[in-house]
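Customer ticket, subject: "Can you confirm the structure for Polyribonucleotide nucleotidyltransferase?"

Message body: Hello, I'm evaluating your service for our small team and ran a test protein. I'd like someone to confirm that this is what the system normally returns, since I don't have a reference to compare against.
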Amino acid sequence: MKADFKTIEYAPGKEMTIDAGRLAKQANGSSFVRIGDTVVMATATSAPEAKPGQPFFPLTVEFKETYAAGGKFPGGFIKREGRPSEKEILSARLIDRTIRPLFPDGFMNETQVICQVFSSDGENDGDVIGAVAASLSLTISDIPFEGPMAQVRIARINGEFVVNPTVTELKAADLEMIVGGTLESVVMVEGEMEEVSEEDMVEAIRHAHDAIKKLCQFQLDVREELGKEKWEKPEPEVNTELEAKVREHAGNKFLDISRSKLSKKEYSAACKDVRTEAKEAFAEEYPEEEEFISEVCHVMQKEAMRKVLLEENQRIDGRKPEEIRPIWTEVGYLPRTHGSAIFTRGETQALASVTLGTKRDEQMIDTLFYSDAKRFMLDYNFPPFCTGEVKMMRGVSRREIGHGNLAERALKKMVPSTDEFDYTIRVVSDVLESNGSSSMATVCSGSMSLMDAGVPVKKPVAGIAMGMIVDENKHVVLSDIQGEEDHMGDMDFKVTGTSDGITACQMDIKVKGISYEVMVEALQQAREGRMHILEKMAESISQPRPEVSKYAPSFVKIEVDSDQIGGIIGPGGKVIQSIQRESGAEVMIEEVGNKGVITISADEKEKIDAAIQKIKGITGDLEEGEVYLGTVRSIKEYGAFVEIMPGRDGLLHISELDHKRINKVTDVLSEGDKVEVKLLKVEDGGKLRLSRKALIPKDQE
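Agent reply: Thanks for trying us out. I re-ran your input and got the following:
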């Protein structure tokens, strides 16, 4: 079959080419999408029928980057790709969050979307290309899908907005976001920025949406030519008679619960009691309709929560829309970590700890598009007890990776450069309680723990999760949403920043047509909430501690000439290993220009001093008159050769062993003995003359 490539210019100077429906034809829909020399394939496959009694939509999205796409071998011993990298998981999540709301209600067929990067030019990232390919494959397939959608990356570079910038161009960006949307509206935003204003962020989204609309129309044009006939949308069976009876039985109970200002557990228990009563009331008449009765009750619960909010301006726990739950914080809670902080907001609590390390502790990142060392990292843990549940604890979930990435991006712009603070930094956030936005609690506790650790962060960072309830004529923006408001609301908008601007964001919109004016309103309300949270954080800590923890490693940097590096390392690393073993310090060497930069780190200053002394000895900086602890390497009739620095031996003549006469060297020393000696002289040619007797008082003869 001959290729029929189609191309669109979706932004000035930006083209995308697609090849749809010609390859991977066993899937319901397939496409290859290309920008530059990066090519991504996406397939969409769905089971022909839903499993009986399937209560949810089983959608899975996979994103794969094969090293072969860039002409590279995988790093490590096994030369085959293994488990998904964090980059692949994050890319899959971005696609999932944008396409999931576009499947029709009631569609329960198991569906899988697989995106794979088959060619990479190293400049055009495959994530947003894969998102367009996923949407196109679904759009031309026979799977019910209410798209298309598209994603683009938007960046501000030298004051100008650029759609889908290259990896190189991104290095100069002060704002970077991935925006997903349809022809009508934006449905997903995620990104990081350097303290930008709310207005600048909205303007970036506008530019992105202009390109998104062109890509969506392009997909519709392709569908007209290549699309398959869609399966009929499922019409869920509704027992209207039973639904009416359940509604009559429940009456205003859910409304009363929504007005009762309850905690999470109280609210959940009260709603569960109503569902249980309804099931018991109709168990005899409708013995096989328990699931349907629960579904009707859930709909009534959602309707009641939204009604009380829209008409009475009251939330489940009694708060007003803009009100933030009570906050308390504490720093220095963990005695032996290098820094720690607790942040509690309502029923959400995160405990963060900081570990400071050396360059040796950096995380090496090796992906298709990026190969670099990572010196700041944040890990987010969400154990089952934080929501009062019992679950198997397996590996790190995709959700944990996604939430940790958002918090890391929120904080990393405020982390000092290596020139200012040369430590490797790891933040670990353990969520101890969760009822809404534990990722934003992680940002707050993480920021406080960094200051507690003495990391000279530029400014404190806080985060807040915003929500929204929308009907035909009215909307309400909610600050600091809790779990039920997220689940039954129309928007989840997380915003992090300092007192001067936004550092990261993540937005998911569940309804179509939210205007930019409403988005600006939500961002302004989020700013007010962020300022309030920053004030509460400042009650515990407002600036970094002047010094790092006494338990953190200390390190010193010294410079040597580049031609001395070989002598310090030694053959096969023998010398540097000896320095580390004997001093107890870690030693790392980097060649920078014509200099060798040596970083020496240890948990005690004495160990660092010992390593410095040994290095100075190797580089010819031995000082006459100084005392050294050496090792006897060999014994001759006339004396012993003592190694006082790795690779530097000196002669300890038999006459310098003691003030009294020594007949045999072996009467005093054996090979391998440690002995303190004084360096008497460095003779021409670098020969060393040592003395033991110079350190022995004469009255001990």
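A couple of notes from the result: The mean pLDDT is 90. The domain at 6-226 is CATH 3.30.230.70 (Ribosomal Protein S5; domain 2). Feel free to reply with more questions.
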